């Protein structure tokens, strides 16, 4: 009898305390649930074992990456529906032992164990990495950056498009991704008030887009630093192709090892998420020490929402295991406070949350359009990681669960307090 899907929906509903908002198709071909809803495809019983051994986000992610689970229909709609469901109801806020005191939870778990067919946990997918306890040493940071960015430049070209900018774009109605990324780079340059002949340090320079834009369009001399060998090779070729080798230097170097200041300006675009809570003040102090008095820092960084208990930093289990090992997000207020503790004066904060949701949706569309080639380049598991990560992140930005901010800070003159900022600061608009 083909009845796995209705049984699954019933048991999951017991765990959640509410009906599963998706339609389910099980390995036996049965289906159950709202006819118009996206379909959660449970390809095999192994998916249940993954969820039983790791209830919550990590178990779901493992099943997705391994191909044990899939979604048919609108992926964004499915993720949006699931984001309103607290899967951790199976564990309870007090932990799995307390949750299992609930008779309904115990009955549902027993039912899922019977359906799973085996008590043994499957091995995690090969794409999963082990955490390094967020030490953020030079060695652990190099390893984490390599895991994320050395996937292959050809793969990133599929996802990011010709701009090769891997951070939130700056959109106008009806614009293209390339236009929006150009406008973001130009916005950063205007906020930094770059002038010909000045020195710019681009921390976490990626594939060289900011360095090339600033040197070509604003006449500055740029040092770009990255920990990724593949990024550096790509960026150096772009610099050479643009005829900018006399103005742009790309280094494989930790920002903590930059010792040739002072610089007139520093851009840090989508890099500070890798720094870590324990190292953030050091990061701010190092950058402040590399700036001339009156020098500006533009810090473009994803932020999470504050928690009741800020004694420890929240880490997303899926992203930590598959996407950004050792990455940590902080509230924007924490970032501002740390910059000010390091001696900066924060002059402007601009939230770009909706812009990142739009950017991620374009990246997902690029990946889906080039899916076959992406799978050939990186493997099906890695491609599934990226599709889930970017689509789920788009939903999180849209639901205001996370944000992204550009923080403009200045190193004022120690003797006079002069900032060099105009009286009407938003001259870049």
Automatic annotation (TrEMBL):
Any single GO BP term: lipid biosynthetic process
Protein keywords: Lipid metabolism, Methyltransferase, S-adenosyl-L-methionine, Transferase
GO molecular function, one term: methyltransferase activity
UniProt cross-references to InterPro entries, sorted A to Z: CFA/CMAS, CMAS, MeTfrase_dom, SAM-dependent_MTases_sf
Protein origin, superkingdom: Bacteria
Keyword Methyltransferase: yes
Family: Belongs to the CFA/CMAS family.
Record protein name field: SAM-dependent methyltransferase
Biological source species: Streptomyces populi
